[in-house]
Each structure stands twice: as structure tokens, then as C-alpha cells.
Design a protein that fits this description.
There is one protein chain. By secondary structure, this protein is an alpha+beta fold. The protein is 21% helix and 18% strand. Strands 1, 2, 3, 4, 5, 6, 7, 8, 9 and 10 form a 10-stranded antiparallel beta sheet that branches. A hairpin with a 5-residue loop joins β4 and β5. The longest helix has 22 residues. The radius of gyration is 22 Å and the shape is globular. The two termini are 23 Å apart. The N terminus is likely disordered.
Length: 395
Amino acid sequence: MGDRFSSSIVTAVIAAAAASAAISVSVTQTSAQAPAASGAALKTPWGEPDLQGIWTDEFDTPLQRPAKYATQEFFTEAQRAELDNARSAVLGRFATEREINGAYNAATFFTTKRTGARTSKIADPPNGRIPSLTPEAQKTAAAERDFRVALLQSTDTCKKNLPGCAGGKYEPTTSPRRAEAPPRYNTGRLNRDDGPEDSSLAVRCLTLGLPEFGGATGSFRRIVQTPGGISMFYDVGQGQGWQRNIVMDGSPHLPASIRQWFGDSRGRWEGDTLVIDVTNFSPKTDYQGSRENLHLVERWTRTGPRTLAYEVTIEDPTVWTRPWTVKQEFGRQSDQENRLYPEPRCHEGNYGLPGLLKGRRVEDVAFAEGRGYDPASRDNTGALIDAEVPQDPLQ
């Protein structure tokens, strides 16, 4: 369950200290593929560029560029070394009792890798930041935040004026909005568990889908090609794996009335680059506030025996004031060492979510009978833990 205690990458940093104080380049699920003997291996037997294999981002790069780097697109080697040293120091520190208690995700799933060459995954705009929201999107985001903060009003998060309650205020009584429906379909974690939809998509064993850039838990994509067909299998998060088939026959997108969790992917070759146009997303998915109007143009290019360049332009005129572009480079993992590669399954969430809901009902009954605390006074979003964990210097 992706955010059982905390959604913060830095919670991962704390638990990792128990195992090692060094940042590792290796990944837990795969290991590096030896270079191919020659460029001839970069074509399939039927003559298309060969993108096949298991690929992952082997370095840590923030999505958005920290402000202090301004328009600097790449780190110097000295800057990377300095960041690796600083991040190793965070990994090696002693954790507080609260941090250790909140480090379930880190000990089980999270990984920390060396600092990448880019100062941000975002390559355009030049400042490496997500563009400004449109006025309409700002109103939507404010309404959602107001609702989430209202559900926290009687918790220590608001009492201590922590960032998780920014814009809200502390009231010892339960919020009058606690029984309200969210402003729109909920994809994050609310400070209540009245039903499955109050949990995040990850806790519900659903995935955020596209665009997919990895993160604290790492991610892998296996690309399989056949003549006239391409499939991509994603291993992300804590078992929230999924796949998509790229339609390569030149046919148009599905009608606008048909919406899919991972969108509708239509591909074509432009020289050695696979270009995929993705539309028709479901309003129940969410990427940075964008839902059914999200439009992606992806470019996948094999750049070497074990390197694959990925570029995606993201747009939604109802959310952002301009399109923006992300770039990543993936390394190929060993086919031999991954010859047995089981399909990801989110077993824990399938069993854990009913347990979480039952636990909340037990708390409700106890409080109604004059026993225990008011469930509304307890923050189950992770904001308390996040506030006490030192930030990753790369972020």
C-alpha cells in the first residue's frame, strides 16, 4: 500500500539507514545488462528499431528543478559528488522513534540511488518547473486542499501548525465537513476511512498510470515487440503493476466517450524513434491535477546497447498555461538474471484495505461508547511523520 504511513520519499531515507549509509547505484529487482556486441542488435529481425528489454532509471533526479539551480540543466561532477555525500549523511543519521515507526514503506520497498546528471527531469520550460496553473485549475486545487485540510482540523497536524495543515486552523471539534463528499473523485489519502474511496489509489492497489517517471519505490518497464505490435509492462510502486498495448496500425483514437485508466495509446515510427500519442484518460485518474483532458506525446529512442532515451510532452489547457516536457534515460537490465519475472501483484493492499476499514469501524464504535479517542483527532495521512524527517538534499 503505497502511502500506508507516509507518502514522503524522505521517510524512505530514514529506514534505509538501518541497512547502509552508502547510496547505491544498484536496483533491487534487476541488474545491469552487459553491452551488446554490435549495433546490429539494435534492430529486430523484421527491421524495426529494437526497444525490447527491461529498463529502469538508474539515478535519482527530482521532477522539478530546485530553485537554486535556476536554468542550469545539468549538474557538474563536483555538484553531484557533493550531493551524494550530503545524501549519504542523511541515510547514515540516527532516526527518532517516530521516524522508525513510520518507516514501513522504506524498509520494505523504497530505494535511494546516486544523483543523476540532470538537475530536473523537466527539460522544458527552461526553469525546469511545472508551468503555472490556469485560473480554473487553481480554483479546483484550492477547493480540494480546503476539503483535505478541513478533515485535519482537530489533529495535532493543525494544532502544531505543521505544513500539512497550511492554510487551515486548529479546532478541537470534528469538522462539520467530515461527512461531505470530496469536491471531485478522490485519488489521494483523506483523513478518514469511511469507505475505500477515502484511501489513495495506491492503497486501493490502483496505479497512477501515465505519465510514469519512477520515484522513491523505483519502477521498471518491460518492452515487448512483435511485427506490428508493441506492449509495455510496468512494475511500479508496491505491486501496482500494469500494462498497455500500443496500437500501431494507423487507426484514429477511440471516440471521446470511451475513457480508459491508462488512456488510448497510438504509436508510429519516426525514423528510429517510437512516437506514442496518448489521449482518452479516465476522470478517475490524476496527474498533477490533470484528468480526462490529459494529452501526452511520448518519444522512445534506443541510444545505445543498454540505453534508452525517453521524452514526453505533457499538456492539458484546462490545467496548465503551457505544455511541458520531461526527459529521462533508462538503463537496460539483464535478460538472463530476470528470465523469471513474475507479474506484479498488490497482495498486501488486497487484504490490507478491508483490515484498515474494519479497524476504523472498531475505533468509531469505541468512541461512541465513551472509550478511546475521537478518530477525527488522529492524523492518518502521514503529515506528522513527514514534518519531522529531514529532507533529501536532492529535493
